[in-house]
C-alpha cells in the first residue's frame, strides 16, 4: 500500500465537502451589469494607476519597504541555514539511514502468518521511534557547523526508504498463531473489550468460529484452574491423569437464578443474568425425567450428541429425581384453588405465570379419588372448572389458558364465594377439604371488609375447611405485607411468588405431609480412561471465599430434580463402559443412603431426534443461558440464537404435551410463535 494513500483517502470526504461549499457560494454570486467593460477599461488605463503611485512621496513608503526587506532577508537566511545543517547532520550520522524502520521490514516466512487476513493497524513501534528520533534531531542542529555536504545526498536512497512495503509485516512477527490467545488480547485490545463479538441487544448473534483448528482442551496434565478463573467455566480435563479419573459434585435442586431471571420486573436483565447459574436453570427445567419412587432419590442418565458443540462431542446427562411424599393409606382430598386474574401482561409474568405452571404440574399428582376446583375471583367470581381429576389434565390446561389478562377482580367477594364452594363439597368419611387463595391484593382489604369476612371464614373453618393464604410477592418483602385482620389464626399465611415454593405448598396440601425427601445429595463419577479422552463439566462453578459459606444444606423436596451435564470426547475404539456413577444422600431421619449406576456406549442416542426428552430440554436450557451470558465455549463455537431456534423447532412433540412445558417455553423465542 503506498505510504500516502491512507492520508489521501482520508482527505477525500473533506475535499468533497469544501468543493460543495464553494459551489454553493459561487452559485449565489450576482454579477452586476457592465462589469466586463469596466474591467477592460481598468486594465487599459495603466498610466493612471502608475501616476497615482508615483505621486506618493518617498518619505511615506521608504520606512515600510526597508523593514519588510530586512525581515524577509533574516527569515530566508535562518531557513537556509537550518536546512543545510540538518542534511549535513544526516549524512554524518549514517546509522540513521541504515536503520530506517521501513526499509528493514522483512517478509514473513511462515505459511500460517501469510494466511492471516489482517488490515493495516497504523505505524509500527519501530517506525514511531525512528520518526521521533529524526524530529528530535532537527532543533539540535548547530547553525555554525554548516558545510556543503548536501552534494553527497543521493535521491534514489530516499525513494527506497519510502517504498510501498506492507507495514503489517512488522506486526505479524509478534502475533501468536492463535489470535484468541490471552497475550494477544491483553496487548492489542483495551481492558474489558471482547474483539470476537459485537454488542447487540435482544438477540446476541455471535461471530462464526475461526477457520483454523481450535483446541478447547487444557495444555496441562491436571485441571486448569487458571482457565476456570479467567473464563468462569470448567475446562476440558483428561482422565489419563490419575487425579482427573473421578469427579465429585454436590447436587442442587435450587431454582433461584431461573426464577429471578424470568419472574421479575425486568426479565432477562444483564445484571441478573451475569450471576445466573446453569445448574439452577437445569434444575428448573429438569422436569422431564421418569418419576422416582415415593420418598426416594434416584439416578437418571441420558446421553447423545452435543448438537451445539460440533461433530465428535457427546453429552452425558446425570439426573437426580426426588419422588413424592404420598403415603399409600392417605385420605382423599378435595382442593379448591382461588386466584385473582392478572392485571396486565407484565403483572402476569411476575405473578400469574408461576402460579399457572405450579397448577399445571399439580394436576398430575392427584390420585383417582382426589379432585380440584378452580375459582376465578374476578369482578363477579365464578367456578372455571369443577371436580377435575388426574384424567382431566387437558381440560385443566385449557381452563388455565382461558383466564383473561386485565380482568377486574373482587378479592373480598372471591374469598366468600370460594369458601362457599368448598363447603358444598361432600365431607363424608375422612376426606380433606382445603382452600388455597392466591392473590397479590390482600393489603387492599380495608377494615370494614375484614370485619365482614372474619365470621364467614371462622364458620367455614369450623366446618372442616383448611385455609392457606398466599400473597404473591417477593419473599424479601414478607415483613412489609402483614396478614389482614380477617385471616389471623385462620390457616397458614405465606408471602412468595417462587415457582418452586408454590409447587411445594400445593403438593403438601394434596399429600398432607411435609415435602422434604433428602438432604445433601452428592454424585461421584468414576471415568474409564480407556473410553473417555476428554470431559468437561457444565455449570456448577465453585462458590466460597471469605464471605460466602459453602456448607449450606442442600435440600431435595418432593418432585425436585437436579442435573449434571458433561461434554465428552470419546475415542473411536474403546470399552463399552464409560463411567460409574455413585449417588449418596441423607434421608429425613439422617440415615446415609447410596445408589450406583453405570453408563455404557449403548446409552448414547445416535441423533437429536432420538435423544430422550430430558436431554433435549437440558441442551436447550444450557445453550439459552450460554448465549445470554456470551460464555466462552458458545462464543468460540460461533453459536447463534437462530441455531437455537432451529433445534427448538424440532423438539419431541411429547415435550409440548408435558405439564412442565411452560418452564422451557419461556426461554426459547421460537416456541412463542
Automatic annotation (TrEMBL):
Pfam families: VWA_2 (PF13519). The chain crosses the membrane at residues 65-88. Keywords: Membrane, Transmembrane, Transmembrane helix. The keyword Zinc does not apply. Residues 355-440 form the VWFA domain. SUPFAM superfamilies: vWA-like (SSF53300). This is VWFA domain-containing protein.
